[in-house]
Write a structure and sequence with these properties.
Layout lengths: L1 E7 L6 E8 H14 L2 E6 L7
Antiparallel strand pairs: 1-2, 1-3
Amino acid sequence: MRFEIMRLDDIDGTAVDSTVVDAASVNRIVQQAAACGQRIYIRPAADIQAS
């Protein structure tokens, strides 16, 4: 399964950038974000719809 991970702005919470990763990478990215205090939003990539 793949997930989209968005890094959020510290001030207003808007998405600054995003990446799609496999499930095995999610824990590592969450640990890195927690270590430096980054706010992230994670959702299944299957829910992403093309516009």
